[in-house]
Fold this protein.
Amino acid sequence: MSQPLHTSDVTLEIDGREHTLTVDNRMTLLDALRERLGATAPKKGCDHGQCGSCTVLVGGRRLTTCLTFAVAAAGSRITTAAGLGEGDELHPVAQAFQDEDAFQCGYCTPGQICSAVGMLDEAKAGAPSFVSDDLEASPELTDNEIRERMSGNLCRCAAYPNIVSAIGRAAIQ
């Protein structure tokens, strides 16, 4: 029996485990992760790519999954906040969030952590931001630089000062 035209088989590596599933071609990666694979770290916030709650790392780069079709991510290595640590040990960014009390309700935290991990890698690679003083030099991660680079991730509880502190702490570790 042939497969319906509006579906595709996709293989995704999520947090180190490979999954193959048939998805509607219009299904977002967020819906595939949460509804089909049971991943609870990426959250559905705005469903318009404006809040960052659904942020994961795809091939090490930040991605809002609510704006990405699952078929577009086929064959990708996807890391959610749940897949960042080693065993029972938290990832340094997640540990810094805990140490700095950088969350209140916690809804945005997985997206914030994934975004911070990706952002720190971008900064280490020398990628400037809108507020970088010198576009040729490696950026200094000042509070303003961190705020600008994390501006795509919203926190309804307004834990921003602690989030910035946590990212600054993780950056020097």
Notes: The domain at 7-83 is CATH 3.10.20.30 (Ubiquitin-like (UB roll)). The chain has a mean pLDDT of 95.
